[in-house]
From TrEMBL:
This is NAD(P)-dependent alcohol dehydrogenase. The keyword Zinc applies. Its cofactor is Zn(2+). Keywords: Metal-binding, Oxidoreductase, Zinc. Belongs to the zinc-containing alcohol dehydrogenase family.
Length: 362
């Protein structure tokens, strides 16, 4: 079938709406009409590195309505409302242990530009277009996804507000809920309160953590963080960030989250921890980092990586929805919606930081 997609043709070119041919579903695939899709930092990073000769359809925070299912899909039906998340194989030891975000085939399934067999479901005039980004490529009117990408939700679910739950929101919230697992008396400091950091803040508050510190360069974002329950907000450009965190937490935070992937910020986050504290890293950016080993061996601190919130989306996304419906996770306060046709404006606003979490509405 022919669909309309926002095609990336190089780092510096704007996304262009083009008619793209989408294959029919294979036996284990589901055809979804996209209703909304978030714009994630990973989309921006990928666009910046994909060469112009390899056009790709990005987007991996989709939501929509099922239109068709493959012959092997028995528990998803046309008309179902769904949220889309990352892809996993379901067969490796990590998937079968309940850790699909660490799937042994994660890179192939999510960032190779195609399916597990390296084919793409997308083409233009018979020429391959890189697709199946995070198993979705949801910057389009329709997406062809595997069954494991699909989280079926109730028919009254708000598909616009919940669209980003499949990546950015579960990444931040899951880092707190599934990796840190803080108790109410613990303290959490978050470096970078964009969409991921705000989601982490909301998760900490949903878990009744009262001492949550937000660090960012944007006064506007810090104001929103304060509104959402941060007990202390700190200008990341200040010379005494570590001292301010220690003062706010009584000697250092129990947990720190870095969303920036910037070496100086990571070093600051490690220093901001109390002895025996844990730093969780979720950002994509600098490939290496410098650490003072003494912070680890001398104080028992730990550094832990986390991808996609270390969660099984089939279990964690319903938990996030339950928190939201109970008034404990007001993610709508950081979302700004854009018509699909304004995707380049949404990308610009995400890059500039003027919008915390853009969501495109089709």
């Amino acid at each position: 079938m022919d669909i309309t997609a926002a095609v990336a043709r190089g780092a510096d070119a704007p996304l262009a709406f083009e008619t793209v041919t989408l294959e029919d579903p294979r036996a284990d695939e589901v055809l979804v009409r996209i209703v909304a899709t978030g714009v994630c930092h990973t989309d921006l990073v990928t666009k910046s590195v994909f060469p112009a000769e390899l056009p790709i359809v990005l987007g991996h925070e989709g939501s929509g309505i099922v239109e068709q299912v493959g012959s092997a899909v028995t528990d998803v039906r046309p008309g179902d409302r769904v949220l889309l998340t990352y892809s996993s194989c379901g067969d490796c030891s990590r998937c079968t242990s309940g850790l699909p975000s660490y799937c042994e085939n994660f890179v192939i399934l999510n960032t190779s530009g195609g399916r597990a067999d390296f084919t793409s479901p997308l083409s233009i005039d018979g020429t391959r277009v890189m697709g199946a980004f995070f198993g979705q490529s949801s910057f389009a009117t329709h997406a062809l996804v595997s069954r494991r990408n699909v989280v079926v939700v109730d028919r009254d679910t708000d598909l616009v507000t919940y669209a980003p739950f499949g990546c950015g929101v579960q990444t931040g919230a899951g880092a707190v809920a599934n990796v840190m697992r803080p108790r109410p008396g613990d303290s959490v400091v978050i470096f970078g309160v964009g969409g991921v950091g705000m989601s982490a803040l909301l998760a900490a508050r949903a878990l009744d953590v009262e001492n949550v510190v937000a660090v960012d360069l944007s006064a506007e974002r810090l104001a929103v963080a304060k509104e959402l329950g941060a007990s202390t907000v700190i200008d990341g450009a200040a010379e005494d960030v570590v001292a301010q965190v220690h003062a706010a937490t009584g000697g250092g935070a129990t947990f720190a989250l870095d969303t920036t992937a910037l070496n100086p910020v990571i070093a600051t986050a490690l220093q901001a921890l109390a002895p025996m504290g844990t730093l969780v890293l979720v950002g994509l950016g600098e490939p290496t980092m410098d650490l003072e080993i003494g912070h680890l061996t001398g104080n028992g601190k730990a550094v832990r990586g986390c991808i996609e919130g270390s969660c099984d989306p089939q279990e964690f996304i319903p938990q996030l929805i339950a928190w939201h419906r109970a008034g404990k996770f007001p993610i709508e306060k950081v979302i700004r919606t854009y018509p699909f046709w304004e995707i380049n404006q949404a990308v610009h606003d995400a890059e500039s930081g003027s919008t915390i979490k853009p969501v495109l509405v089709l």
